[in-house]
């Protein structure tokens, strides 16, 4: 057997060594199976620890949060409003009033409902409104479902009804995440399996790679569930969806790199264990550096003012950490047990070219490298100009916030109810602006509220528990004033009204606080825009340091970061055009540019690391120009395949009908494809060749001319 091996190929490892390797592999796989068995059941229970309440997203220092905390002393508890609307097209009747009063009494008996107002008639005589105060600690979805069930059972003939308002909007929004545990995972895994099947043309290998991704997902969700239940992080529906996508996508990307080097090694190594060992040693550093980069990048979200963003940082970091662990332990263990058979029917066999090196050529990448080698400067300049032109589209990105009624992309009763409510009452009825002011100044505050555009009326809460009837209720020397908006409380116009009101009230007393639904929206959007300015420079600095240490260069990291930023700008420009002109979205969530930046930059650097670590390896042997081209030939197919896989997994987020997730899915999926097919495959190699050996300054590679 040894005699039949090509010269220079190592002999097969001793039986004892192979036995130990197989035993270790079996142990590793068994350990991951145990993790999967423990983590799998948490898919059905993690929803119980989610918190999608907007107020919990904000820090305690936010003005709206302070009002939410203080208002409980006025109402006897912390509550969130809901509206029940009744409409009769021919006009409401006396019998309708009696029926609605009876329904109000039954609604008050629902667990979680604190109080229900008497029926409020509309000025046009066609509608009644009930304002329901719901305990903020109650399950909003359960309370809303109970109210809707009650209406279905007791609604008078000819009287149409809707349950709407902040509680109902939040419940319908939360229901939109119901597909995360089912549809999202099925679509993501099916897409990845299909892509891997096409890439590898192997039946077994895609299953092995997806098994490693499944281990990463179940392990990460087990840890996230534990820390979320302990109250260490805020787990939201959006962070749970991103957790699944990152764990599957990153684990698959890392697997592609390892499998690529493993298959390459099998072309020159007779021993599968020797080939696997060689591949593992060559990929552990870039995979580790890649994982560390993404982990540090997402942990920079800890500098956010929004608790939801702070919670996403650790959740995403845990997903990446488990993706790394699964890729460097579970995957090699399964490959060791299956040997070459994992590639069936296209099993790689030992073969050599004239130079004695194993080869697996691609005509496409040969053509690309030939073009780059001949005209590098023209290629990178033209590419950069095109990307810069696309980036100008970012000027049209409307990322100042979206009304809550527009966040859900499928029809819902709460949104329909809001539309109907605005036809018969002030659009902000049921979701008032709340002002907490000193007792001695509340008359001036009332006057100021009534003078603010889009505030239709203002009344002070009285001892009777109703606005405007009796003496003002005083708690610790303060009163609570409610302002009814003439516009929808979740609109940008309402936020403008709150901002104007705060400015005017600051002149009366800076200690006056303004809260309510519109103020929560305003404070959330303000915090998101502040995060964008603060976190982006921090992420860039962290990644710059990591690349400098990994590549032992100062020039290369700066150019690579610049390419990633250019790619990000072009992506946002295209996204703005698509959001405004193709999908006709009402706007973009202010967190979309931040999350898009963190994921695209971190993942873009992933592919930079995969490419440049191999380029650096080749440059040390072949010289700068030939080394860059050889590195691209070796990794180009793998990087583009990884990009397609990651884009497909993020695209699976579009199955969840939540505007934020759909927008993030588009930004990251398009951005990853642009990065892998254009920036990483064309712009960066062409730029590196044009810059020459100075690309590696001040490392040794910038000074030593390696002979061919």
Describe the structure.
The chain is α+β, with helices and mostly antiparallel strands. The chain has helices at 15-39, 54-57, 63-75, 94-107, 140-154, 166-175, 180-200, 204-229, 237-266, 272-299, 307-338, 363-374, 376-391, 413-424, 442-451, 492-508, 517-551, 555-582, 591-622, 624-651, 659-691; strands spanning 79-87, 113-116, 120-121, 127-135, 160-164, 433-438, 455-460, 478-485, 513-515. Strands 1, 2, 3, 4 and 5 form a 5-stranded antiparallel sheet that branches. A 4-stranded antiparallel sheet has the order 7-8-6-9, with helices on both faces. Strand 3 and strand 4 (127-135) form a beta hairpin. Helix 16 crosses helix 17 (517-551). The protein starts with 14 loop residues before the first helix and ends in a 17-residue tail after the last helix. Residues 1-11 and 354-359 have low confidence and may be disordered.
Please supply descriptive tags for the structure shown above.
four-stranded antiparallel beta sheet, 62% helix, alpha+beta, five-stranded antiparallel beta sheet, 708 residues, 21 helices
Secondary structure: number of strands: 9
Radius of gyration: 30 Å
Biggest beta-sheet profile: 5 strands, antiparallel
Please give the count of helices.
Answer: 21
Shape category: elongated
Low-confidence segments, ≥5 residues, pLDDT <50?
1-11, 354-359
Mean pLDDT: 86
SSE run: HHHEHEEEHEHHHHHHHHHEHEEHEHHHHH
Based on secondary structure, the structural category is alpha+beta
From the N-terminal CA to the C-terminal CA, the straight-line distance is 35 Å
Helix percent band: 55-70%
Strand content: 5-15%
């Amino acid at each position: 057997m040894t005699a039949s091996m090509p010269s220079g190929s190592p002999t097969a490892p001793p039986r004892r060594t192979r036995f130990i390797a197989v035993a270790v592999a079996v142990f590793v796989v068994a350990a991951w199976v145990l993790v999967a068995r423990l983590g799998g059941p948490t898919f059905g229970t993690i929803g119980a620890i989610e918190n999608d309440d907007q107020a919990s997203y904000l820090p305690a220092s936010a003005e709206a949060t302070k009002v939410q905390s203080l208002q409980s002393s006025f109402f006897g508890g912390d509550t969130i409003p809901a509206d029940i609307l009744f409409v009769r097209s021919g006009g409401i009747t006396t019998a309708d009033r009696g029926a609605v009063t009876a329904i109000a009494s039954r609604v008050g008996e629902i667990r979680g409902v604190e109080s229900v107002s008497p029926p409020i008639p509309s000025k046009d005589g066609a509608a009644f409104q009930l304002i329901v105060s719901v305990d903020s600690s109650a399950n909003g979805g359960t309370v809303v479902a109970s109210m809707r069930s009650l209406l279905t059972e007791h609604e008078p003939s000819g009287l149409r009804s809707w349950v709407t308002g902040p509680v109902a909007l939040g419940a319908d929004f939360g229901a939109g995440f119901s597909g995360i545990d089912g549809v999202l995972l099925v679509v993501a895994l099916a897409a990845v399996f299909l892509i891997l099947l096409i890439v590898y043309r192997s039946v077994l290998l895609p299953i092995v790679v997806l098994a490693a991704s499944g281990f990463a997902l179940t392990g990460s969700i087990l840890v996230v569930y534990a820390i979320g239940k302990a109250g260490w992080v805020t787990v939201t529906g959006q962070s749970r969806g991103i957790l699944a996508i990152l764990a599957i996508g990153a684990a698959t990307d890392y697997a592609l790199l390892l499998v690529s080097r493993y298959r390459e090694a099998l072309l020159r190594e007779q021993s599968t264990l020797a080939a696997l060992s060689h591949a593992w040693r060559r990929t552990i550093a870039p995979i580790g550096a890649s994982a560390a980069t993404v982990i540090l990048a997402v942990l920079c979200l800890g500098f956010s003012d929004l608790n939801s963003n702070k919670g996403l940082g650790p959740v995403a970091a845990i997903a990446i950490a488990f993706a790394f662990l699964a890729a460097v332990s579970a995957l090699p263990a399964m490959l060791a047990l299956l040997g070459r058979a994992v590639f069936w029917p296209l099993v790689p066999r030992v073969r050599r070219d004239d130079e004695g090196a194993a080869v697996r050529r691609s005509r496409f990448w040969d053509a690309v490298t030939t073009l780059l080698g001949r005209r590098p400067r023209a290629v990178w300049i033209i590419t950069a100009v095109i990307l810069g032109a696309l980036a100008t589209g970012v000027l049209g990105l409307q990322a100042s916030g979206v009304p809550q009624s527009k966040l859900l992309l499928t029809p819902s009763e709460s949104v329909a109810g809001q539309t109907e409510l605005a036809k018969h009452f002030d659009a902000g009825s049921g979701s008032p602006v709340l002002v907490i002011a000193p007792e001695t100044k509340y008359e001036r505050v009332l006057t100021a509220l009534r003078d603010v555009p889009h505030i239709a009326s203002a009344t002070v809460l009285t001892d009777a528990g109703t606005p405007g009837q009796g003496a003002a209720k005083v708690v610790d020397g303060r009163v609570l004033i409610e302002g009814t908006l003439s516009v929808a409380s979740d609109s940008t116009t309402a936020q403008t009204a709150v901002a104007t009101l705060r400015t005017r009230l600051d002149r009366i007393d800076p200690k006056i606080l303004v809260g309510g639904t519109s103020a929560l929206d305003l404070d959330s959007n303000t915090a998101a825009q502040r995060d964008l300015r603060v976190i982006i420079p921090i992420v860039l600095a962290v990644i710059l340091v990591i690349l400098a240490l990994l590549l032992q260069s100062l020039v290369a990291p700066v150019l690579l970061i610049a390419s990633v930023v250019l790619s990000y700008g072009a992506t946002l420009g295209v996204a703005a055009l698509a959001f405004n002109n193709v999908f006709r979205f009402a706007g973009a969530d202010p967190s979309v540019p931040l999350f898009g930046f963190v994921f695209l930059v971190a993942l873009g650097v992933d592919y930079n690391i995969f490419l440049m670590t191999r380029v650096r390896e080749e440059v040390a042997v072949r010289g700068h120009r030939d080394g860059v081209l050889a590195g691209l030939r070796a990794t180009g197919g793998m990087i583009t395949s990884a990009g397609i896989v990651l884009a497909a997994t993020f695209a699976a987020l579009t199955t969840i009908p939540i505007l934020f997730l759909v927008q993030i899915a588009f930004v990251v999926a398009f951005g990853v494809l642009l990065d892998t097919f254009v920036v990483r495959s064309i712009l960066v190699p062409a730029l590196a060749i044009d810059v020459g050996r100075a690309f590696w300054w001040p490392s040794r590679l910038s000074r030593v001319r390696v002979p061919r």
